[in-house]
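Protein Record: Sequence and Backbone Structure Tokens
======================================================
Tokens: labelled as protein backbone structure tokens, with as many entries as the chain has residues.
Question of interest: how does this chain fold, as expressed in backbone structure tokens?

___
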Amino acid sequence: MTKIRSKPVNEACFQNLQLLLKGKISFAEWERRQEELESRLTPAPELPFDGEDGDGPRTKAA
């Protein structure tokens, strides 16, 4: 599993919020930065794949 560095990301979120509240960045810019930072907190999903042949995702028969 990927190690998540939440403290630097949280600090960056607060810095961006301060910039927004002081009027130094637009809401659209704050939102763009926020989405980028939030994506760093969420690890990539681990998708189940069939063996080594790469046939795609496994599905369970009903």
Remarks:
- Helices lie at 6-21, 27-41.
